[in-house]
Each structure stands twice: as C-alpha cells, then as structure tokens.
Amino acid sequence: MRPRVEEVRIQGLGVIDEAVLELSPGFTVVTGETGAGKTMVVTGLGLLFGGRADPARVRPGADRATVEGTLVVDPDGRAAQQVAEVGGDVEEGALIISRTVSSEGRSRAWLGGRSVPVGTLTFIADDLVAVHGQMDQQRLLQPGRQRAALDRYAGDDLVKPLRAYEQAYKRHRQVGELLGELSTRARERAQEADVLRFGLAEIEKAEPRDGEDVELREEAERLAHADALRTAATTAHGALLGDPMSGEQGVQDAVSLVGHARSAMEAVRAFDPVLASLADRLAEAGYLLSDIATELAAYAESVEGDPARLAAVQERRSLLTGLTRKYGADVAAVLAWARQAAARITELDGDDERIDELTREHAELTERLGELAAELTAIRRSAAERFGAAVTEELAALAMPHAGVSVAITESGVFGPHGVDEVEIRLAPHPGAPALPLTKGASGGELSRVMLAIEVVFAGADPVPTFVFDEVDAGVGGKAAVEIGRRLAKLARTAQVIVVTHLPQVAAFADQHLVVEKAGDGRVVRSGVVALDQDGRARELSRMLAGLEDSELGRAHAAELLSIAEADKAAWEKAADGRARQNT
What we know:
Belongs to the RecN family. The protein has helices at about 40-50, 80-85, 120-125, 135-140, 145-155, 155-185, 185-205, 210-225, 225-240, 255-265, 275-300, 305-325, 330-395, 440, 445-460, 480-490, 505, 535-545, 550-584; strands at about 5-15, 15-20, 25-30, 65-70, 95-100, 105-110, 115, 130, 405-415, 420-430, 435, 465-470, 495-500, 510-520, 525-530.
C-alpha cells in the first residue's frame, strides 16, 4: 500500500480561517481567485512536513495557526516503523500529524499523538512527500542543489562509492588536522619533555622508596629522644621486676607483689571456683608482666643516642621534602608522578614516529580519495547523460520539442565533502543555441517547464508517494499548459499529486478539483475550500478561461477541455490494461 495524504485541516493560516481538504489518491488541483489563499494550502502542507514556520503567516487576530493531516500508511511499512521509534502510534493505518505556529513564532509538532521536534517531521517526510513550490525552483538553480539532484538521480550506483568517499574524506581531514597540530606544537612538546626529564632525573638520583618518609620521621623521633626513651624503659623495668644492683631494701617490684597475691589465693582456691578463676588470671598477669619487663630491658639496651645517624636522617628527610614540595604531597605521590612523567616522555618521544605514520596515512588517503573521486565523477557523468536525455524527452512532451538539457560536470581539483565535481544543469532552447546555465538560458515559462520535466524524471528514478506543486506551471499557457496537465496526470497514475494552479488546461486533467473561495464583509476576509462536482468544475474552468462562470463560450471551452482530458485518461487506461494482459 502506497502512503498518501487523506485529509488536511487548516485553521488560522493566512486568509484561511478554517478549511478541510479531503484529498483523492490521484491528481488533485486547487484553484481560486487571486488572493483567495491557494498558496496557503501548499504552505499548510509544507508546515505539516517540517517546513519553516513564519509567524507572519498566522491569520491576523488569531493566536496561532494549526495544520493537522491524516495520512494513510502501511502499518508494517517504513513510515510506521519510524513513527513507532519516536513513541507515536499508527491506528488502523492512519497516521495523524499536527503542527502549530504561534503569532510570536513558537512552533510545536505532534506525530502519531506524540510531541516531537519539528526536525522529526522533516525526517519522516523524506519517504512520504515532496513539496515543490517556486522557491524550490530557485533553490534548484544553486550549484550545490544541482549536484545533490544529480546524485539523487544516479541512485544506488552512487550510494556505496559516495559513502566510501565521505568516510575517507572525513578521515583525511582528521589526519590533516592532527598533523598540523603536532607540527605546530613541536616546540611546546620539546619544552614539556625537557621539564619532565629534569624532574625524572632528580627523582631517580634520590631513589626514594615508597613509605620511606614515614620511616625516617619515626627514626628521627627516636634518635632525638634516645636518652628519655632509655630512662623510661629502665624505670618501667625496675618497677615491674626490680633492680638487684640498686641496693635498695624493702622495695617490692610488681612481679613480686603479684606473686605474693597469687600464693595467698592458691592456698584456698579449692574452696571456691570463683576464687580459683581469679587466681588463674593473676598467674597470667604475672607471666605477662615478666614478659614485658624482659622486653623493656632489651629495648633499653637497644636505644642508643647516635648524633651522626640523626644528622644523616635529617639530611635525607630534607632531600625528600624538596621532592614532595615539587612533585607530590608525599613520597608515594612523587613516585606516581615519576611513573606518569615516564609515560608522557614516551608519548612525546613517540610523536615523531606518530608524525611519520600520519604523513604516510595522509598520503595513502589522498591517493584513495583521488581514486574514489574519479569513480564518483565517472558515475555522475554517466548519470548526467541519462538525466539530460530523460529531461529533454520530457520537454518534447511539454511543447519544447527543440530544447535540450545537459549536465556539465567540471572537476575542481580540490577534495570536497562530496568529491571534486561541480555540477551545472544547462539548457539549449533550440538547436544551434549554446547550452547555458538555467539562470541564463531559460525564460520564466521555459524554466517552469524544465523544472516540471526534472520533477517528472525524478519521479521515475526516485518515486515519492505524494507530490505537491505550487504553480509549477507559472508563465506557461496554450498548448504547453495542456501538455503540463497531461504530464501531471500521468505522474498521478503512480503517485498522489496535489497541484495549485491558475491554468484551466491543467485543472481539466485532475481527478479531484478543490476551489478556495474567498468571502468578506468589508472588514474581514475569509477563505474556505470546497470540493467541486462535474458541473462545479465546468463553472470554475469557465471562470478561469473567460473570467465569467456563466459565460457560454467559457462553458463550452471548459467542456471541451474536460472531454479531452477524459479521453486521454481513458486511452492511458486502455493502454495500461493491454500491457498488463501482455505481461500475464
């Protein structure tokens, strides 16, 4: 099932107060008097699919303009999947899209009942609709747009090599920028490496050990207070175990006193378990006091005052303090800085090798880009020949049988994001005339026909479910207008086509005719959209032809146009049925 726009509701947009457009699957034309608001229909569709919001388009006196569209889509198709990815819903194949623009310029969008960024509508629209107004024609005259148009026409043949080129181009730029940065920072890198090497040499010369600063601080404390420590240990030892060399009589040490207490309790311990437990604990205390006294004696013997060692310790601590003042809070941090500095020096020393590697990679990428760019150019030249021939053929059907369209491709010699090609679409209005750029070689009417021919060719190469044209037939009349109507009607056989036109020859080929009617009370002008029946179509075509709805001559001419259009469409149907029977 091909997606299509089923209904559009417009409120507060330009002169349109409120209007509902129920659109047919085939060819729909929108007509109306000048100033009635026909272009607002295209503007509304453009807003619906992510177009630029212009607060000046909001109807005077209204707070906002609102456009809501109902699209028929395949529930299992790509569009439905994209809607689901943003949290929206497609209910029974119907997708609701809504857009509001406030008079202050604020814009909001909804997709499948979910509020989304406006850019999401543009993303979804790529697979659903192509809106073409006269501004789109002007944009197509820009060289960059013409290159993009040719790439779109080239199709799948160009997709893979163009993607490979774009990836190589991106890497080529990255490598070039990195090379430039490394080269310009060579002096800074050399200075940084010298500073790091100096610091690393200073640390390596000192050879600090992890935790050495803590050990030295403790040793310095012991050496500085050696006499006090030895006296304290000796005194404590005497208090615990006594000193037989002191000559003092009657002074009992702690171990002896605990021994007396234990002896007193041992004599009666058998009479009470509680007392026995206390006696055991006294025994343990005695053993513990004896051990402590022994260790105190050994400690007192070990403590010696060594001024030379104290001076050496203080000198070493001063050296480590100098390192911690420069490179870290303690020795552990200094050692960590040294490891990081060594790694950074390796990295900086490796930059020269890195530059050599990047230089080789840059040269390889340059060669690769040249190969890919040449491949892109070849594909574009081939597509340009086909594109020019196809558009020229379409122009013959649009009353420009002697015109020729060609696509000139010149190589700039400079790698760009899309290759080295500069693309320019040219028109030769008649044989012997030089092929000139569209801006110089085509009149207004010719340009409109060229643009329509291009769109028809695009429709065959890259089909879009719905096409919207805003007065693409501007500046055209007579036989050429009839041919434009035929081309649009043929396009509508494979896609939904919505056209805003002022030409009755185009409107006659439509499957559905909508007219924008303008009404006013002298102060306020309002427009609405009305679907015409067969009789209404004849009256509207008569108005477009003669300026009078009830002109007999105009009605006759309108009937003739409708008859020609119906005959052509019937012939196409018959031919299509014949081809279908042959294929089966």
